[in-house]
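pipeline/complex-builder :: batch 7 item 3
reading input block
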Amino acid sequence: MATEYGYFDDAHREYVITNWINYLGNEDFFGLISNTAGGYNFYKDAKFRRITRYRYNSVPMDSVGRYFYIVENSTVWNPGWKPCKTALDEYECRHGLNYTRITGAKNKVRASVLYFVPLGVKAEIQRLTLTNLSNEMKHLKLFSYAEWCLWNAATDGENFQRNLSTGEVEVEQGAEWTAIYHKTEYKERRNHYAYYAVNCPVQGYDTDRESFVGLYNELSEPQAVLNGHSADSLAHGWSPIASHYIEVELAPGESKDYIFVLGYEENEENEKFNNSKLKIKNYELLTSLGERDHHIINKVRAHEVIKRFSSVEAVDAAFAELNALWDELLSKYHVESSDERLNRMVNIWNQYQCMITFCMSRSASFFESGVGRGMGFRDSNQDLVGFVHQIPERARQRIIDIASTQFPDGGCYHQYQPLTKRGNNDIGGGFNDDPMWLIFGTTAYIRETGDFSILDEMVPWDNEPGSEVSLMEHLRISFNHVVNNLGPHGLPLIGRADWNDCLNLNCFSMDPNESFQTTGNKTEGSQAESLMIAGLFVYCGRQFVELLETIDRSAQGQKSAMLKDIIASANTQVDAMCKAVEQYGWDGEWYLRAYDYYGNKVGSHENEEGKMFIESQGWCGMARIGAEQGMPEKALDSAARLLDSEHGMGIQRERRYFLPQQPLGHHRPDRSRKRQ
Amino acid sequence: MATEYGYFDDAHREYVITNWINYLGNEDFFGLISNTAGGYNFYKDAKFRRITRYRYNSVPMDSVGRYFYIVENSTVWNPGWKPCKTALDEYECRHGLNYTRITGAKNKVRASVLYFVPLGVKAEIQRLTLTNLSNEMKHLKLFSYAEWCLWNAATDGENFQRNLSTGEVEVEQGAEWTAIYHKTEYKERRNHYAYYAVNCPVQGYDTDRESFVGLYNELSEPQAVLNGHSADSLAHGWSPIASHYIEVELAPGESKDYIFVLGYEENEENEKFNNSKLKIKNYELLTSLGERDHHIINKVRAHEVIKRFSSVEAVDAAFAELNALWDELLSKYHVESSDERLNRMVNIWNQYQCMITFCMSRSASFFESGVGRGMGFRDSNQDLVGFVHQIPERARQRIIDIASTQFPDGGCYHQYQPLTKRGNNDIGGGFNDDPMWLIFGTTAYIRETGDFSILDEMVPWDNEPGSEVSLMEHLRISFNHVVNNLGPHGLPLIGRADWNDCLNLNCFSMDPNESFQTTGNKTEGSQAESLMIAGLFVYCGRQFVELLETIDRSAQGQKSAMLKDIIASANTQVDAMCKAVEQYGWDGEWYLRAYDYYGNKVGSHENEEGKMFIESQGWCGMARIGAEQGMPEKALDSAARLLDSEHGMGIQRERRYFLPQQPLGHHRPDRSRKRQ
């Protein structure tokens, strides 16, 4: 089934494409990669530890990337077509599970590059295989290209007074490998460095962008490539890059592999430098400041990785290990149905997507620049439901990390930075659906693992040491945050917004320099209420009660009494919320969406536009609010009718999700599901 | 005298160049323009009101700009060489005073573009003159190009969740002109719009970047230009641009002028829209949302400007007006010496540069991205000295604006945003030399104008209405801010830094995510003291006293008594500072630079590196501290000796600046200076 983007290859669990992107890495070192090898790498945090540069919304589109320039006589081409865009005789990009393989061929030379991040390694491996498909000897020149980001992706494009003056590198040339090191600010106050190595000697290198690219040149015509040789530049300030220049001879039919390693390492403060022996045996070392540089990086960690991946066998082994992990991850949940598209989505791509959201949580993509936001509080909790069966241990840690950013009143930072694990002050909080998602995620985790011990974990407020309380207490406070923030109709105040980040019912900003997405400028006396949060509250509230009751079964004495109190009051609050929705949240045929700042209805038949919203139908429906009066079914019927009449869409209603969920007490639920 | 950049043409007061940049506009509408027409426009504030896009530190370098594509058969070229970089038969760029003229010729067609911002107009005029130098008829195609910035230059490159969905335009086609309007967020909460018009009908247009440029194309090969015709695209979201497509016929020797106007206008809230008449007579109007757009911009203001500059005569008149202004500005200060380079610098370029710094104050250049900072408190005060004789009225307002951002304790925001005129919280304050610069600037203003009334102006603290006190009181508090922030040696605490922003003696940040330029993380019990501030304090303190004494002459009774008190205590403080410098700030041969956080000397012969700094020699010397012991002269001798021995530079000492300045009471000083 080919689309404008490409087609699925189920046998290899790959998507063969012409225009799409993929994610490399599933631990701490990540890469975003497009089908032309565009994209960038970062360690943990796309904002604070950006390793290579990428230019969002640039012309040309999708620039920069991990480029290889192949020169044969006057022809220059790239395996991924970009940036030279020389017409290729063959082109294919295969995006697999945390790996991408790009193959291009020109004039009977094939170049195939496998990109992936080995498990437990802070580096991206780029295995380039060059094959001579002709009957003659081939004399080629190969140039690699990577552009370093000065660590903080936000200031990298802003503070040139600093950026253009601080760049520093080291180049290490030897018999077994050639490594280019990026160490900007390493001398001063950083304990981390990046490197780009290849497993062979080279004919030259470049580390200064202008020397390699040329003053006015585009990346499609770098000066060094046009010259046919590198400039052997040592960057000091301006824009540091990493490029290897390698001359390649290929006999008819011959294949050669080049293993490039683009990595990141951190050193302890007391072992940062290596002054005693500036050079390792038989290796020449060059630095930005030449002889005046008494601060040579201690490279022990990088050398370990470079040496480990010096052979094709080692790369194959690491790649096999990555594939084995995915065999294991995908083996935990499997559906066999007559619908191959359903099977494909459920058994491979949806689970893969869930792992990606676990790692990134919308913080970085080809749509999110990676500097505007961190990991979402709400997002991370709901994404968790998708991967908890794959990696329960990591899901557990994620829940603790998220809860640790919560405020003592139950409010939440809307986002947090994965590097520091601290709440993101730039965005702040006040999105009133956030607290409920912690209950949602935690119960999903326990439902999957049966691990009630997580509730006893001691978790701080706002990362403040000494403020720790049990996770269970975080859940109780989260529940109460809604109870303590009710509006005039007894419905939850929406705060800055709810699940729909852009439903800013309290924002009447006329200051165009404020972000209308994240401003709630009418905080005083706001009446804006959200039916979506009401549904979410009842849905999660009932799970919260079920959780308490389950614990209570094995509890005694004072603890049991305390639990019974909480259960009683929680039930009271949930019932009250149901009444409020039935009385003020029901529009006659469907659930309202909200009341705005002035108390006007949103999502009512009375409205000229936006008569019905899906969020409140879904959540109030799943919460079974007004079930006795058949409200959930009525709302779905109305939605189907509306969509049918307005958009001519025949909707088949799906009630399966009204079936009771796996009970909380039951450990390791049977996952085999059949559907014909 | 040609350099690698170009040469001066004194007759025309132009710099003829191959690689340099210029500034257009000297009021509210500005443009930065390079010799290849690269750069961008903004209204008042390079961060909050960016009108067109520019990509700093991009590949290709210096992109985007105000580009004209000229197509003749298969040849595509630009008058400014970029972005096509087609080899030109002729090329010249003349940067004049607030205008730039770029001329290119190819295959006997000459294209000359004059770029300038007329006085009192919020628009950049681009007068393109096409001349047929051949004996045959020429059939050309002309494409213009401008890329809109979504108003806030900081978020424009960051928040794509919003940016890619909000772009909106209008296109107005008629007999006399064709105008493309950028109105993103105008419907919602902005009262301003931008436009790009040409004074003729067109054969087509584009407002969507991808439609014009193509998916993967570079600006050197836009798809529409390659196709030979526009795509007539209407942007809705993604990246809105403005491009006119014009077919041009030129008889042998014929010349044609095209006047492009790139402008910005604001409407009152109650007159934003023009729903009654969607179209003006004989004009076709197209919008992003087509017929569904009931929010057509009220274009009265833009139409006035477009109509006004519909003729070459009108453009010539406006250009003459701009040149006349500069004749007048430069007539106020003139030096005749035997050194033509001195004459050139003093009479033209230094004064021009001062006007630029008045307008920009380092907030935007090809080095400052325009988003990282606003107008400098210190910078604006010291720049003022350079232009106060040219535009005393504007200098007066600038002083009031700057003082209005000051804190009640005399501390200052280090920068403020020109659009809001409010202090920049991102940078904050604590640079302890800042307050003295307000005294420096104000006395310079009075010395030039004799306008003592400025001292009675009521000026708020931190822009807080109701907090107003007289400017004189601001000066007194500024003076006291140093007095109230003395260190263990009785020298001024440096705070976060002084004139040397990077001298962060209190910053020991090991958090690489902090900016080492603007972090003073050791605030508790800091001892770091600055000799530069000490010198600045004495220098400005004496001027402050002179100012008070001058006022006192015409004062009586209580006011006079009060003044005498302030004078007495000021003199005491200044004398004490001199003593402190002589005792703890003198290294034996020169003035120390500072004491760091730990009380260690900086800028002493005891130091291994950085034995002597210029800032303290200059300011303590100009303040004549330790004159009795000949410290100023000794310091200069030592500096000369050191430079001579270390760098083999023979230094001629210049003592002229030790001559007494123009007395404060004396109005409109005689500016004629002779030097042989």
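note: Chain A is about 30% helix and 25% strand.
queue -> next item
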